[in-house]
Amino acid sequence: MPEMTRLIDAAAGGDRQASAELLPLVYAELRKLAAARLASEPAGHTLQPTALVHEAYLRLVGSEQPQDWNGRGHFFGAAAEAMRRILVERARWKQADKHGGGRRRVDLDEATGEFADDSTDDLVDLDEALTRLEATDPTAAALVKLRYFAGLSMPDAATALGLPLRTAERNWTYARTWLHRELERSS
Q1: CA–CA separation, 61 and 33 (whole Å)
Q2: From the centroid of its chain, how far is CA 171?
């Protein structure tokens, strides 16, 4: 059994030592996924890839309840889900009236005086649509999470889900079309 798989299994069972040994093995890949996801965030966001990785990792291995990961692909799928939830929670937090609500950051160096783009509404809308898609097609929703939130390539996402590449590509096309239609309806 490969070392990473052994550590993932042990960490899933609550072994703190295995969790500590696992982090250096998966950190670079998780950080790359987080950086890819945060690259699409608007300018001026305050969450850094390192902070997103640490928060996601704590949610994955820091809970008292044992996890049930079925290997490396399932672990990274769970990491993608954790990152998605963190980003959605931050977006909802930013929308709250007591945290600024609809106010937007203004770059003082901008000569035009226009507001910076803030996509917290878009992220919350996407999360709600993704939840509806998950109810009708869990595989398509899982593929979106791996591709959009974890930044996995199509072959890597297909492997993580145990799907043939062509099936994953069809699901990706369907999911994007479905989500686009749902987001158009909500706006």
Answers
A1: 18
A2: 18
The token pair at 159 is: 């492997």
The tokens for 31 are 């950080």
Write out the DSSP string of 89-108: HHHHHHHSGGGTTT-----T
This prediction has a pTM of 0.52
Question: pLDDT by residue (tens digit) across 109-122?
Answer: 332 333 334 455 67
Residue length, the chain? Answer: 187
Within its chain, how far is the Cα of 165 from the centroid? 21
Extract the tokens encoding 13. Answer: 């069972």
Opening angle at CA 82, ends 78 and 83, nearest 5:
120
Instruction: Please write the tens of the pLDDT for every residue from 89-114.
Output: 887 877 765 545 555 554 433 323 33
Radius of gyration of the chain (CA): 18
> What pLDDT, in 10s, does the model give residues 50-70?
888 888 888 887 766 666 777
